[in-house]
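REVIEWER CHECKLIST
Item 1: Sequence provided? yes
Item 2: Single chain? yes
Item 3: Sequence as submitted:
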Amino acid sequence: MTFIVDRRIAELLCSRICHELVAGVAAVNNGFELISEIDASMMDETMALIGSSAKQASGRVQYYRMAYGFAGYEALPSMAAVDALIAGLVETERRFTLAKRDGASSAALQPGWGKLLLNLTVLALECLPKGGSVAPSATAAGGKTVLAVVGRGEEARPPDRYRGVLDGKVGTADVTAMNVHAYYTAALAGEAGGRVDTDFAGGTATLSVRV
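Item 4: Structure as written out by the authors:
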């Protein structure tokens, strides 16, 4: 199936980005409002809250700029660049960590591959309802490159809202703000010449694209 990214899909992606950012930005705003109402003994705690929330919002803005924006096609030439963005995203999320890759050497990233890895990572995080770790990789295999993200955590499983989306059984008319990320990731995989394959076993969620 051809995954079409039309205006409606773009608008749903915008809705998702706003949803991801609103909590952190609102926390910063609430912190500043509290400053005028609290005594000096609580100032350090309030400033720490503002700083943490601002850092979280900044990390998400940088991440989604590359994951959804045009810059992600050219600005991610290496796994180091991908790792840095993922680290920034999960740093303020106590439930998640960025795991080290195994000893396999990383293949060079072609334009768009880093962007695809960022989107696969978001899928992997959403497959870990109780938290865990994610490990992105790009490895050469049989003349192809396998872009993969392995998520490990208790009760790793695909969210029900993604059912049928990655394998093309959900058309554009049925895409919602809740499942648009899976649809968009599948579209990126198709653009790269592959498809999203999934495997769930023993507390592990593996999402990969062979390109």
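Item 5: Key structural point noted by reviewer: The CA atoms of residues 78 and 109 lie 6 Å apart.
Item 6: Recommendation: ____
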